[in-house]
């Protein structure tokens, strides 16, 4: 029976193995776990040559693959590369050698029967030529023997997992995995508060096949990864939905600097660093120096670089490194001046505080906060001791007493993930407030019974102080209501509005707060249409305060 690795059909190869199993004794000198190795060839799968094979392993259940070599390939080199994609595994290479007569090499003529008889009586030889346990990428390089059958056995003792196996018997046609340089280390050449700069030596594959090679960088806070396969498994286990067969395959002109294109079964998708959870993936073409941005201060990060073959999706790992970003610098403190209003915008995602400092020139002072957007927490200390702390809404005053030259520190922080903003003023002049006197409520009321097809009646509260009120309207769609109400800047004045949105301005007040209410009927509206109404209150200083926006829909039929 003449054996050929590529040209024999599967049934014929299985028949060959069955013949081996039933015609030759199993060895008795092997270890207990391999005492039936020869019979186990019968239960093995054929390992493909020249391509990467994904092997799924169940816990404590060994899985076996075999391969045979062409008859004319005696003493030819071959390689086997195994890449664990998660937990450590155990794997071995066993070789079975039988006499040439049994494998179809019997002498011609009268001696044929005698040679076969001798081979059947002689014991076959099964030996383990390689054994490994761990989670590193391991490559075995060997020389094939004449008339030999090889078996690979894989075992996971921790949990279900998967690995990749690559068998190459034709080393002249190029290697599947990109070659690493002689020094495969990653060097850290710069560290900042939120950045780390890395460099590494070029892979020889980049110099030879530049258009087919890509460098990919993985960043995480847990540990280094020994293979791209292991990193992809970690990404999937963190809850990110990824294709079943994952490979980094990128084209520089299709990518943003912090985006990765995933190629799986010819389907492409882009994964941002922000959506990849634990592991950030960055690919940068064939550049071998990169500055990783948007890191957190005083945090240790692990960096792994892989050189990826874009044609085969195979990769080789550089030796990973790690670095700790610098500690966050002390926040900048802005000086507050008497009577001057400043507006502060707070980043809700970074949750950083903004600091303001004021040195008192009077014994009594007043802090004023006008919330413009979002939610803001205010924290005030005097000479290091807390004097006020609360979440503010609308317009809020803090009147404080102390000594001359007391140091007040105001810290502001957004309590929402979205950005917030607030206006701040400090002044010793209580009798000349910069902001207008406010009514009990800043809500606008509409009267449903007074609605018509082309008019709406609204009302709002005033104060005991004569002030100017301006009314604006804006036509909106149903799907714009939420966004308009959420994005409204309560500190912005009518100067930001289009002139066509202005309805009227009026002055009013009442000494009796119970009667300090005014109404207005806005006419000339379209039937069955949504309108957003705003009222602006102007005080003596001219600084406006915006009432809460009100959405009203005119009647469709009258």
Task: Tell me, rounded to a whole number, the average pLDDT.
Answer: 78
Largest sheet: 5 strands, mixed
Annotated CATH homologous superfamily of the largest domain: Immunoglobulins
Provide the low-confidence segments as ranges: 1-35, 99-122, 241-277
Give the class-level CATH name of the largest domain.
Mainly Beta
Shape call: elongated
**Count of discrete domains:** 4
Task: Assess the beta-strand content as a share of residues.
Answer: 35-45%
Remind me, CATH topology of the largest domain?
Answer: Immunoglobulin-like
Radius of gyration (CA) equals 38 Å
Q: Pairing-aware structural class of the strands and helices?
A: mainly beta
What does this structure look like?
Helix content is 10%, strand content 41%. The N and C termini lie far apart (97 Å). It has seven helices and 36 strands. The protein has a five-stranded mixed beta sheet with strand order 1-3-8-5-6. Strands 12, 15, 17, 18 and 19 form a five-stranded antiparallel beta sheet that branches. The chain has a five-stranded mixed beta sheet with strand order 20-22-27-24-25, with no helix packed on it. The radius of gyration is 38 Å and the shape is elongated. The model is unreliable at 1-35, 99-122 and 241-277 (pLDDT under 50). With 558 residues, it is mostly beta strands. β13 (259-264) and β14 (267-272) form a beta hairpin. The chain folds into four domains: 42-98 and 125-168, Jelly Rolls; 186-241 and 272-325, Sandwich (Immunoglobulin-like), CATH 2.60.40.10; 333-427, Sandwich (Jelly Rolls); 444-553, Immunoglobulin-like.
